[in-house]
């Protein structure tokens, strides 16, 4: 059974077709990248998958369960975790409290021990008692990843998780993602950084103007005419 | 736990112990005037605590909070009328339930929305309740209702102390020491992110609003029996909500001690101004100046003068928009 299956999902805003029949699936423990130019519909797709937006039509299946039109909190409880393109932290709460909050609707047993382990893993010990708003951009992205780790979801959606992050922190993030995949987690990753995409993704979905225009491995995608056209704006014969 | 934090906790416990001892022995050493003053301070602290739940913790501005105080007052007054004759203590939970039902009716449709909708809805609710009390025969219309007289200030002091201390304890345990507190603060800080953690934001907001409505209803019931006469002007005047707002802002919005400090300082200041100047006009000038000073220089209120106090800056946060969407640019 697929960890995630998206079947002919469509979404429009007024006259703008943001998603035009998106269909693809993600196997368990797979890391799939979603790339595409700005405005291609990647974040809209994430918002539909997480319940922040309702699709006009189509179906979304999480571990075989139809979650289309479920409210966001119910989808999250069913095993889907996400990070946001712009870090969405609980700014007045400390780093530790942000991590504890991620567990309030999940497993509360041993929550303080798990939070301490996540803080250590993400090297956030020095700022653990600081409010989230005082963190640097890179630390904020790490904390978002930390919240996801606290919940141990089956499927994680990462929205430009390494954007603007220092190379050292970026390496730390990638190591954590790989380790979680080995432990059984599935990832769907939006990323503009092609180097990072090539480094961790098993497979890549290319979107343009609300459509999937190519699928394949990094090597296959790199030589695909549609991708060249979407990214470089030139036709490749 | 580090040594400075341990020292601070010890100091806090000592101060708390002294305050508790003073409150518990007050009827034995304070005169009748001071006891009434203390009863009023407890009343305003309790009311400010309740407003802090919905605004400071849940992040929604309620401009009609005094309606719940009036509802509690009227329920107690109606149920204690000759011919009905309920026991005073039995009327308090009824007032709390009525306030909770009305809070749910107002909060369910409006707490889904952001911006001014909730503030306008609560203001309209308060005006609606006041109009209803002015015309309905069961509430005595504009003439109000008279309650059975019980001339025992010590009794009402104990009632008010129990209600306010109970409200403080419930707020402290629920909002600062439980999972519910994490949920409420998460929804306040970033609702889309809270939903992404599996938190049912609408449910949490309604629960917080109901909690904030129940407290003034109980206090309103006690106050009605104490003052023995209520009418729409005394129990449902929206100016009373303005006083609550100022008390919480000056004390410290979103801090558990903020309403305690703000309610105590401002009520005592108001009484002192009345003694000094004969009316409370000078107090209104003081309140205006205090609000300006707090917003500019002390956004976390007087509570931020205490060592180790957290900086929330919620007042300034209400001035600028907060996260409402999750859409990105890609």
Write structural notes for this entry.
The complex is a heterodimer of chains A (237) and B (330). With 237 residues, chain A is an alpha/beta fold. Chain A has a single domain, classed as P-loop containing nucleotide triphosphate hydrolases (Rossmann fold, 3-Layer(aba) Sandwich). Chain A has helices spanning 42-49, 72-77, 95-101, 111-121, 137-151, 167-182, 194-200, 218-222, 225-232; strands spanning 4-13, 16-26, 31-35, 57-62, 65-66, 80-82, 155-159, 186-190, 203-208, 211-216. Chain B has a domain at 31-236. Mean pLDDT of chain B is 91; it is low at 325-330. The termini of chain B are far apart. Chain B is mainly alpha-helical and 330 residues long. Chain B has 14 helices and 2 strands; from the N terminus they run H-H-H-H-H-E-H-H-H-H-E-H-H-H-H-H. Chain B is globular and about 60 Å long. A two-stranded antiparallel ribbon of chain B has the order 1-2. Chain A: This is Branched-chain amino acid ABC transporter ATP-binding protein. Chain A: Residues 4-234 form the ABC transporter domain. Chain A: It comes from Intrasporangium chromatireducens Q5-1. Chain A: GO terms for molecular function: ATP binding; ATP hydrolysis activity.
Any idea of the CATH class of chain A?
Answer: Alpha Beta
Taking strands numbered 1, 2, ... along the chain, how are they ordered across the largest sheet of chain B?
A: 1-2
Nearest-integer average pLDDT of chain B: 91
- CATH level-four homologous superfamily name of chain A: P-loop containing nucleotide triphosphate hydrolases
SSE run of chain A: EEEHEEHEHHHEHEHEEHH
Rg of chain B, nearest Å: 20 Å
Distance between the termini of chain A: 38 Å
C-alpha termini separation of chain B = 45 Å
So how many helices of chain A? 9
Largest interface, Cβ cutoff 8 Å = A-B, 47 and 31 residues
**Helical run tally of chain B:** 14
- Which regions of chain A contain 5 or more consecutive residues with pLDDT less than 50? none
Spell the H/E element sequence of chain B: HHHHHEHHHHEHHHHH
Mean pLDDT of chain A: 92
The total strand number of chain B stands at: 2
